[in-house]
Amino acid sequence: MASSAVDPNIFYAIVAIAAVFGISTIALGMRGRLRSMNVRGIWGILSFTFREAIRTKWLLLFAFIFFLLAVDIPDLYLASAGNLPPEYLPSTLASLISVSFPLIPLLPLPVGSVSIVDERESGTLQYLLSNPVTKAEFFFGRSIGLLLATTAVIVIGFGGAAAIVYTQHLAAYAPIILIMLFAGMLNAVMLGIALIISEFSKRKATAMGVGIMVWFILAVVSSLDQLVISVSLKLGAVPALAVVLLDPVESSRLLTVFGGGLGASQVTNSALVVQHVLRGNSFEYVLISVILWVTLTFAAGFLIFRHQDAA
Hints:
The protein has 16 helices and no strands. By secondary structure, the chain is mostly helical. It has one domain. α1 (8-29) runs parallel beside α16, α7 runs parallel beside α10 (173-200) and α9 packs antiparallel against α10 (173-200). The chain is globular and about 55 Å long.
C-alpha cells in the first residue's frame, strides 16, 4: 500500500463549508420567522409523529431484533449454564453490536421514506400547511419526531442487552453508551436520506422500494471489504479512503473500532486504510465525516422540502 498523507486543512475546510451550508440553509428557511415560530405546532407534529412511529410493529420488531443480535441468546444460555467463562459475554457484547451496524439503516429508511409522501398522497400535508404551520415547522417537527422514535428503538434494543449482560457493573456501560451514540448518528444519516427519498417520490410504494434499495446498496458496499484494497492497489490509498468515508455505514462502524475500544478483532481492510492515511487522527476525521453526513442530509432535505409544492 503506497504511503499517503492527508492535509488536515482540507478536512477543516470541508467541515467549515458544510457548517456554513447547514447554518445558512436553516437561517434562510427561518428568516423573519424566529419570533413568530409556532412552537406549539412544532411540538404537536413532533409528539404525534413520535407516538405514531413508536407504536408501529416495524419499530417494535427492530427493537427486539437489535436486542437479540446484541445479547446473542445461545451464548447467553451457555453462559448461564456455566459452559462459558464469566467474562465471555461482557467482552463480546460491544463487538456483536458493532457487527449489527449494516442492519441499522433498515430501521429509519422504510419509516422515513414514506413519512412525507404519505402525507402528500392523503392530502394531510396540504391541510396542515393551510393552518398556522409553515413548511419549516412541519419539517422540523416531523424529522425530530422520527429521529427520537428510531433512536429510542436503538437504545431499547442495545441498552436492554447491556442491562442483561452487565447487570450492576456500571463502569462496563461506558463503551456501550458510546457505541449506541455512533449507532444513533448512523440512524440520523439514514433518516436524512430517507426524508430526501420521500420528498422526491410520488407514491408511497415507490418510496418504500427506493428506501430498501438504498439499504441493499449500502449493505453490499459495506460488506465488500476487498473493494477498499482493490481501489487502494489500483488508485492509491487516498481514493480508497474516500470510498470508506463516502459510505456512512462503514464510517459509523469504524467509529466503534477507533472510539469504542473493540480491539484487533474488528479491524478490517477499511480500518487499515483509514489508519494508514490518517495515522493518529483516524477517529477524529471519521467522526467529522459522519457529522458531515448528518448535517448535509438534513440541510438538503429541508432545502428541498421548502421549495416543493405541498400537493
